[in-house]
Amino acid sequence: MLFLQAAVEDLPGELNSIASEVTVQLPWGSLLRGVLGANEVVLRNLRRVCSPLARLTVIAGLDPERDRFEWERLGLKDISLDYLERVLAAKYRKAGFRILHAEALSATDLSQLHSSWARRLDRSPSRSFFRIVAEAE
To answer: Residue 129 belongs to what domain range?
Structure first.
């Protein structure tokens, strides 16, 4: 397992095709914009580090009231399962990923992340969480 701290827009070439699995868990800022707004550079760089058939899992959450200003700043639209399946699927495919499924997450699903940040975010009753699972083509 490799943990990396780097800007996704500028990943080192040494990472090309090394990952059989990539997880983006509760992103914020440009990474959030990249995976949910389907920024081409971000998605292509994620695909670049993936080997063929690698799994990409994105877990994100949204509180429409608390996160409103950040979502506006990032130019993101209101996220729904319909948006994930219809709009993002085409953009992910263009970057070399096929979305296998998108789903809403329950509190039980979230607790399985074993993350203090996930527990903190889950305290907001209006925050919804979802998961996108894609495969590198």
So the answer is: 19-51+64-136
